[in-house]
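Weekly sync, protein design subgroup
Attendees: M.S., D.O., the rotation student, P.L. (late)

Item 1: inverse folding check
M.S. brought a backbone from last month's batch and wanted to see whether the design step gives back something sensible before we order anything. D.O. pointed out we never logged the input encoding, so this time it goes straight into the notes. Structure tokens as presented (492 positions):
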């Protein structure tokens, strides 16, 4: 895609979140990196399987092989190792836009983020940025400041800043709700983010890629974030502050483009990239459940529910979170011994942890769409404010139960009543009707327009807006005969 399509209204770029963990102008750029140490290699080897489990596992096949080859090519530019094979590059089976790297030569990107990119140079830019964090030892510097260092423990509390403050019970509940949400992201300082950007640009240049790709991929990510806000009905293009790791992206985009300008141009390899990702799974994996509008449906667990109006969902490998300004919730499961009351009390106890004994004020039994259910509420004091914590559980079999944990301001838990009452068991026919989406590379033909191609997008709403963002097309951009574009279709 021509560069001009991504250089529009930089000052108006929407805030970026949930993706690159990054760095640039706050520190001196190292001329060479210290090679991977034995301790770092051991640390990475221990964390690697945990990260794969958290983000849906590593994908295999030709798309994963392609991403691995690009990742190893750019990672070796860092000086962390002299051989590309020293780096383990994983394409993660996750529908969340994310990428990260950890000490020891482990580099990761989700398939969803890869699908958003326009060319190989952008893929190299994202992975190079993440490797830049490792090369600059940013996580070690954070550890020296007594901050948590691992990906699985580094997320800010999802709810504590909004509803629960920084009390022990607030931290405990919010960290519990984070499990499986895939919102776990290393959070670096702005100077570290900018430095990782600059290191990534350096790696792009030395590898022969177009260094402007760092700026263009950041722009695409911001556009995607704005689109998701629009589709989810949020009033602005920012995710809640608890999930934001990238303040002021407009200046970050412009800074990246400015840094790249004196380096000239290089290879983008758009055609090779599109061939490499053709057929890539897009959006939710049915094995992890899918979100369709305000409905969540899991064909393997045979369940479905609907989020309340004004809330949006984020699907993870082990849980699905429901988020809004008036509360947050999460659906997950735990070990079930056949007694729903005991199950609900156990979830409250787990939420309280060692910080506070948390018990419901009362427990009630009910039936929801034929499912035995039980629920309880606990009011938690947090300084001058109070919140309500609700656990609502459903029995699907003698040894299987699922439950919502919801947190709202005191007296506001009824905002989730419709969701609690929407839980139901789906039929085998409904389960079989859930077909995954994938990326299809389409060559524009004579007579094609943005509108006509967009009609092929496998969505019931926002087809053209989704198509434009996916292909970095501005509001007035058109398609040209012979040009290759990405379309999201149902798997063939």
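Designed sequence read out in the meeting:
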């Amino acid at each position: 895609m021509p560069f001009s399509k991504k250089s529009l209204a930089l000052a108006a770029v929407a805030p970026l979140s949930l993706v690159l963990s990054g760095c640039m102008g706050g520190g001196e750029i190292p001329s060479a990196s210290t090679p991977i140490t034995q301790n770092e290699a051991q640390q990475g080897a221990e964390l690697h399987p945990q990260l794969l489990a958290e983000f849906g596992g590593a994908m295999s096949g030709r798309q994963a092989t392609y991403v691995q080859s690009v990742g190893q090519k750019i990672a070796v530019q860092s000086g962390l190792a002299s051989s590309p094979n020293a780096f383990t590059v994983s394409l993660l089976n996750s529908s969340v836009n994310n990428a990260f790297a950890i000490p020891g030569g482990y580099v990761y990107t989700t398939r969803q983020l890869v699908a958003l990119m326009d060319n190989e140079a952008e893929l190299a830019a994202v992975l190079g940025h993440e490797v830049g964090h490792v090369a600059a030892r940013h996580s070690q510097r954070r550890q020296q400041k007594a901050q948590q260092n691992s990906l699985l423990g580094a997320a800010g509390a999802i709810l504590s800043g909004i509803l629960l403050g920084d009390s022990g019970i607030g931290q405990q509940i919010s960290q519990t709700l984070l499990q499986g949400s895939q919102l776990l992201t290393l959070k670096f300082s702005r100077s570290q983010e900018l430095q990782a950007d600059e290191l990534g640009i350096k790696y792009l240049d030395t590898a022969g890629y177009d260094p402007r790709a760092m700026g263009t991929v950041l722009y695409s990510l911001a556009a995607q974030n704005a689109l998701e806000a629009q589709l989810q009905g949020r009033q602005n293009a920012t995710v809640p502050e608890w999930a934001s790791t990238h303040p002021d992206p407009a200046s970050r985009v412009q800074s990246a483009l400015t840094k790249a300008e004196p380096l000239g141009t290089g290879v983008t390899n758009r055609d090779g990239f599109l061939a490499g990702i053709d057929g890539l799974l897009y959006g939710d994996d049915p094995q992890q459940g899918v979100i369709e509008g305000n409905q969540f449906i899991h064909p393997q667990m045979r369940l479905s529910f609907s989020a309340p109006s004004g809330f949006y969902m984020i699907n993870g490998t082990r849980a699905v979170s429901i988020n809004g300004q008036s509360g947050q919730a999460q659906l997950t499961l735990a070990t079930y011994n056949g007694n729903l009351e005991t199950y609900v009390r156990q979830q409250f106890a787990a939420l309280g942890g060692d910080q506070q004994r948390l018990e419901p004020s009362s427990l009630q039994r009910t039936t929801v769409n034929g499912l035995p259910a039980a629920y309880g509420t606990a009011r938690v004091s947090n300084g001058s404010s109070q919140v309500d914590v609700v656990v609502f559980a459903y029995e699907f079999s003698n040894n299987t139960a699922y439950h919502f944990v919801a947190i709202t301001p005191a007296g506001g838990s009824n905002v989730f009543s419709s969701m609690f009452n929407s839980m139901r068991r789906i039929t085998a026919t409904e389960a079989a009707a859930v077909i995954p989406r994938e990326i299809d590379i389409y060559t524009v033909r004579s007579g094609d327009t943005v509108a006509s191609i967009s009609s092929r997008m496998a969505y019931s709403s926002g087809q053209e807006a989704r198509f434009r963002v996916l292909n970095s097309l501005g509001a007035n951009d058109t398609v040209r005969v012979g040009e290759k574009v990405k379309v999201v279709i149902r798997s063939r």
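Discussion: DSSP finds 16 helices and 17 strands in the chain. The two ends are 27 Å apart (CA to CA).
Action: P.L. to compare against the previous round before Friday.
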